[in-house]
Design goal:
The chain is an alpha+beta fold and 399 residues long. The protein has three domains: 68 residues; 174 residues, no CATH class; 70 residues, Herpes Virus-1 (2-Layer Sandwich). It is built from eight helices and twelve strands. A five-stranded mixed β-barrel has the order 1-4-5-9-8. It is a multi-pass membrane protein. Pfam families: GIDE, zf-C3HC4_3. GO terms for molecular function: ubiquitin protein ligase activity; zinc ion binding.
Length: 399
Amino acid sequence: MWGAAVCGSIAAFSYYCWHSASTNARHLENAARIPHSELEAAVRAAPNECIPYAVVTGVVIPGPGAVPLDAMHATAPAVIHRLVIQEHRSLYNEAAKRWEDSVRTIADSTEVAPISLQALPTLFLRVAEPLSAYGLALKQVYHRFVPATSTATKAVMDIVAGEKAKGIDTTESVLAVGTSVTIVGQVTLNPDASLAVSAQAIPTSASRHAEQLQIQPPANGARYYITTGPLSALSLAERTSAWRWRWAGRVFATFAVALAAYELYSRFIRPALDARASRLYREELARKRAQRALELENSSEHKPSDSAAVEADDDLCVVCLDHERNAVLLECGHRCACMTCARELRACPICRRSITRVLNSISLPSAMLKIDWRGLSDTDVCFTAHKTLDLWLQQVDPR
């Protein structure tokens, strides 16, 4: 049942991901697309002065009074700057007896300046919580890998310690000022729009403008997007993700149902069918024994005793119940079937051991039928058979 449970859990998780991706794609398709010239009026006319989900396109600039970030290797100022420093090394795995690559993060820092979205020359929106947005891809402006210096002594010590340094990897990514982005989220009036910004408090390099609106993560649970690509690509990615998760859920659900059906069959249905077949076999055997005993009793030429009739019934093939038992099954040594049925069997009907050879008991001397063939190897079987035949031939023909 563990296989069915695991597949069922994966199918449930896939269904959850499919439902989430399809919901996100539906929200993107139904997002409000309002002309920028009418956006502020639409927000003021909306209930609670809020548009729950809207698409806004514009250019990224620093917020009022904010100084843009100066990246070390960027050619333009930025509003988001991320610096990642990682150490690459090789560690010796004692269990697998091999060297495996490992990465250790030394530093991972992200700086964010207040961000405004300029949709029109006179329309500015404050961008709230940009790092929580989905699809925000920073542009990589610097990447350098510095290999670690090594000497012969250090190399030997690293091998003994089980750790070899490869080098330091430095990556710098930014969201530059002037980048065109598309933001999908909740649009409201900026609560700080009424606060005047003093010209003396603003540095000379800071931006001076008024943010009338604010775009923020939706309150209805929809996903918050900030992307540098077109909205159609974002919607296509969500639909593709939903399609993949849907088919993954179907495949694992099919496996879960198949495994559960097999477990149900093997634990409950097959034992019931085997018990029913065994009961029908015993009833058929009793019926044939009674019929054979009745035939022997009504025969005028031969009227055996009850014990003789039972012995005659016990000498019938357990498979067809018609022919005499004249086959010895090896390696178990049971004599329970006729030669015709024994050639079709793969396992002994009594002990269920595999059948490797079948001997005809009619052509064998009676001394060989008294031998316990079980547990004998091929060499022992051949040796015992030849020895018994030699003794039998000596008794039949003393010469």
